[in-house]
Design brief:
The complex is a heterodimer of chains A (253) and B (181).
Chain A (H helix, E strand, L loop, with lengths): L21 H7 L42 H29 L18 H4 L18 H4 L5 H4 L6 E4 L3 E3 L2 E10 L2 E9 L5 H21 L11 H21 L4
Antiparallel strand pairs in A: 1-3, 2-3, 3-4
Chain B lengths: L1 H30 L9 H28 L7 H5 L7 H17 L4 H4 L4 H8 L2 H15 L6 H33 L1
């Protein structure tokens, strides 16, 4: 990386070079060669040399030392940093608005007895703060399931039971448990963190596995899925509350 | 506005990481005296100091913005002390921040003058584990860590950082060998 030193331009290597500081100064000025001394003004007579006629001394720094070294580079780095920060933020915003899935296979907006509000329809296409919310007036069947023979046999009454929303730092998870024949037959996802592509990708990979796991073990104690810890925790909380609601409604609590 | 806090959290984190790596690379170039002849040593040193200070400022900005974003759920204590509630993917970043403070603040001229050089140098070397922890934090907690562009930039930065690191290691080895003979 080190460049060979030109002895003609480096006064440290060539002390015989006259006016050692003039050449680097000329080099820094972009001329590439030493400038001749300034000419006296036209019509001016030669001044006598001596203390009285000498030009005022200008304090000179050693060659290569400036008061604010790398000033231009500092300003440039600051400008690049700020513009990169704002540019990336704008890029992320644009990505989020264009990439959101309009048809989300995980969100069950046609769940039995549940009519999502308008927020649910636009979930995933708007800001990260958007979560699916449910209209309490339309969820009557989830809290008052129709008793069936399963109740008589000691099982859970068939119906759909709404779990409480569980919020983690990436968003809200809310599920509802569907019981039929006294057993858990389906878990419907009403909301999950979907504020960017990564969240959507993680949850679309992990939630189906959690749903199958819950149905097979008939419990909310699903296996942990690496990389989806927050969703996993919130899913368990919401599903457990739905199961508790089902047990309570069936008189098993 | 809430969304913009989130976007700014991510962008300030990325820029802080890049500035940290740049400051480290500049430091390696400067300390190994591998600076060429076109630019003076004080230029390298001044820019190294500036990049280090900028990295710390952007890191603090990253923490502040992530705190202001209510969606992250981060508490004030999560930003200053690593804990299990926030998770260690955040904790690595907190430790890296304190290490950066230890590296940058004693390098302020007034403080540095009062410190023995060996002590200052030992503390200054903490920049290396700080950058490593920052990389771990960005890979574990970064929302964009799976993005292809992030992977490419990460590989590029690691590749670029290897050169000054190896130059610095070789210069130390050369100096020791010279001193031994």
């Amino acid at each position: 990386m080190s460049r060979p030193i030109d002895p003609l331009l480096d006064p440290r290597r060539n002390p015989r070079t006259p006016s050692g500081s003039a050449r680097p100064a000329a080099r820094h000025s972009g001329q590439g060669r030493a400038l001749p001394p300034p000419l006296p003004p036209s019509g001016a007579t030669a001044r006598p040399t001596g203390a009285a006629g000498a030009s005022p001394r200008v304090p000179q720094r050693p060659a290569g030392k400036r008061k604010g070294p790398a000033r231009g580079s500092k300003i440039a780095s600051l400008a690049v940093s700020i513009s990169t920060t704002l540019g990336l933020a704008a890029l992320f915003a644009q990505q989020d608005t264009t990439s959101a899935a309009a048809t989300d296979p995980l969100l069950d907006t046609t769940a039995t007895g549940v009519t999502p509000t308008s927020a649910a329809v636009t979930a995933g296409t708007t800001s990260p703060a958007t979560v699916v919310t449910l209209d309490p007036a339309s969820t009557g069947s989830t809290v008052a399931p129709t008793p069936t023979t399963a109740a008589a046999s000691g099982g859970i009454v068939d119906g759909t039971y709404l779990g409480t929303p569980s919020t983690n730092k990436w968003g809200t998870v809310q599920v509802q448990a569907v019981y039929s024949g006294g057993s858990l037959v389906d878990v419907q996802i009403l909301s999950y963190p979907d504020r960017d592509r990564k969240s959507v990708a993680i949850n679309q990979r992990s939630l189906p596995s959690m749903i199958n796991d819950a149905i097979s073990i008939q419990s909310s104690d699903v296996a942990h899925i690496s990389g989806a810890t927050y969703t996993w925790k919130s899913y368990k909380v919401s599903l457990q509350s739905a199961i508790d609601a089902a047990r309570s409604a069936s008189g098993l609590a | 506005m809430n969304s913009w806090w989130w976007y700014l959290t991510r962008s300030t984190g990325i820029v802080a990481a890049l500035l940290s790596v740049a400051a480290l690379m500049w430091g390696f170039y400067f300390s190994s005296r591998n600076m060429g002849q076109r630019l003076k040593a004080n230029w390298w040193l001044a820019l190294h100091n500036w990049l280090g200070g900028s990295a710390l400022v952007f890191t603090a900005l990253h923490m502040l913005v992530s705190f202001l974003d209510s969606e992250t759920g981060l508490r004030l204590v999560d930003l200053v002390w690593p804990n299990d509630v926030a998770g260690w993917e955040i904790g690595w970043g907190v430790i890296a921040f304190w290490l950066f403070c230890l590296v940058v603040l004693p390098s302020v001229a007034r403080i540095r003058r009062r410190l023995p050089r060996s002590l200052w140098h030992a503390v200054h070397l903490l920049a290396i584990p700080a950058v490593v922890l920052m990389a771990v934090h960005s890979l574990q907690a970064g929302y964009d860590a799976d993005a292809r562009a992030f992977t490419r930039v990460f590989a590029l930065v690691v590749g670029l950082g290897m050169y000054p690191l190896s130059v610095r290691v070789l210069s130390v080895l050369h100096r020791r060998r010279t001193a031994a003979t």
